[in-house]
Write a structure and sequence with these properties.
The model is unreliable at 1-7, 26-46 and 62-71 (pLDDT under 50). The chain has helices at 9-30, 71-77, 79-97, 99-117, 119-131, 137-148, 157-190, 202-232, 240-251, 260-292, 310-339, 353-364, 373-398. The longest helix has 34 residues, at 157-190. The protein is 67% helix and 0% strand. The chain has a single domain (102-293, 304-396), classed as Alpha/alpha barrel (Mitochondrial carrier fold), CATH 1.50.40.10. α4 runs antiparallel to α7. It has 13 helices and no strands.
């Protein structure tokens, strides 16, 4: 038996956000130190103090003007203020150069938004893949609402978001990193200069996306197992930690990695096809739009580079998601069948991926390998579209651009 103190992941996220916002506020306040102003001799001029910190007589503890040597005032403020200022400066310096980290953040936010938006469809897709069933999507949603209420639409969503945030973050982070390395390698192998214009081929984007998908899945796979448990057996586990420990108690630590092999095999074409189709189509559309507007300049005389509208990003993401889901769905079914073996009384029927693949096809027919494809595609199409819209918005907000 495990004696574990329960800590809500929501509280952890809230505490992290509060700490980050506090540091950000201090960093913004301290930015004025770098912009010195000449002192005014007028007594009527309002005194401006850093972070509005003043003594009882009205004098500034740390003035915005004059010398930038703030060591003495900081000593008077105490070690905590000095520590916060130092941390804020380090965070600001890191953030200004952390381009790859920003890609991770953009992908994580996009994953959370998209997955929460399609959670009801994700729930019924998982249920059909594991237990079967031929009800249509509307029928499944009605039954789910009748049996479990509105909360049934979002069961397992906490674990899902906890999984999808690092998954999507790592996928985009790794994808952009691999593309950068591919471009550098091509320039070196072709003897080109660093500022040469290199365009990656669709196959190269497929390879970069496939490897990125495998890296992300191998890191966060235990959370995928926990999400499946919470979705299929919501009354059995009280939360993420309970499901995590429950799997370990029933089948041991290896239970957290059951179905990993088909997942890695599926992730290569799934993520690779998704990234390849979306980015290749996006570049083609952007090229077409900019060629039509060739010669247009802004008020400063610079050539205007147009980006595709968000509604087109939604459509391209939807097409990419549908193609990716269809290509990898049979392996997704096998993965979920392997995940639930030996848990909650389910028998252990298959020893490995190939045995499960052949066993499902022989017992229930080839069609069983595509069971749940309908709701999975219905969830994937808007989900992937929303993810790419969110990703593009986050990239613009963070000042990022892709190769």
């Amino acid at each position: 038996m495990y004696q574990v103190t329960q800590l809500s992941w929501r509280k952890f996220v809230s505490i992290t956000l509060v700490l980050f916002l506090t540091l950000l506020k201090v960093e913004q306040a301290n930015a004025g130190v770098l912009q010195a102003r000449p002192k005014s001799s007028s007594k009527s001029e309002k005194r401006v103090c850093l972070a509005n910190l003043t003594r009882k007589n009205g004098d500034c503890i740390i003035s915005r003007g004059g010398s930038t040597d703030t060591s003495e005032p900081l000593k008077q403020m105490g070690p905590w203020f000095s520590f916060r200022t130092l941390v804020a400066q380090k965070v600001s310096g890191f953030w200004s150069e952390a381009e790859q980290t920003k890609f991770f953040l953009a992908g994580a936010v996009a994953g959370i938004i998209s997955r929460t938006a399609v959670s009801p469809l994700e729930v019924i897709a998982t249920a059909q893949m594991v237990r079967g069933g031929n009800n249509n999507i509307i029928g499944e949603l009605v039954d789910l609402f009748s049996n479990e209420g509105i909360s049934g639409f979002f069961k397992g969503n906490g674990a899902n978001c906890l999984k999808v945030a690092p998954t999507r973050g790592i996928q985009f982070f790794a994808f952009e990193s691999f593309k950068t390395r591919l471009v550098s390698w091509k320039k070196t192998s072709l003897g080109l200069s660093e500022d040469a214009d290199i365009t990656l081929t669709p196959v190269e984007r497929l390879l970069a996306g496939g490897v990125a998908g495998m890296c992300a899945s191998s890191i966060v796979y235990p959370l995928e197992v926990v999400k499946t448990m919470l979705t299929m057996y919501p009354g059995k586990y009280s939360g993420i930690q309970s499901a995590f420990l429950g799997v370990i108690n029933e089948v041991g630590p290896k239970g957290l990695y059951q179905g990993l092999a088909p997942t890695l095999v599926a992730m290569f074409p799934y993520v690779g096809v998704e990234f390849m189709i979306y980015e290749t189509a996006k570049i083609a559309v952007e090229t077409f739009i900019n060629n039509r507007g060739e010669g247009e300049v802004d008020s400063k005389g610079k050539i205007m580079i147009k980006t595709i509208p968000l509604i087109i990003s939604l459509g391209l993401g939807a097409v990419a998601g549908a193609a990716a889901q269809t290509s990898a769905h049979p392996l997704d079914v096998v993965r979920k069948r392997l995940q639930v073996q030996g848990i909650n009384g389910n028998p252990i029927l298959y020893k490995n991926t190939f045995e499960c693949f052949a066993g499902v096809a022989k017992k229930d027919g080839i069609g069983a390998l595509y069971r749940g494809l309908g709701p999975a595609c219905v969830a994937t199409i808007p989900g992937t579209g929303i993810a790419y819209i969110s990703y593009e918005v986050m990239k613009n907000a963070l000042g990022l651009s892709s190769l």
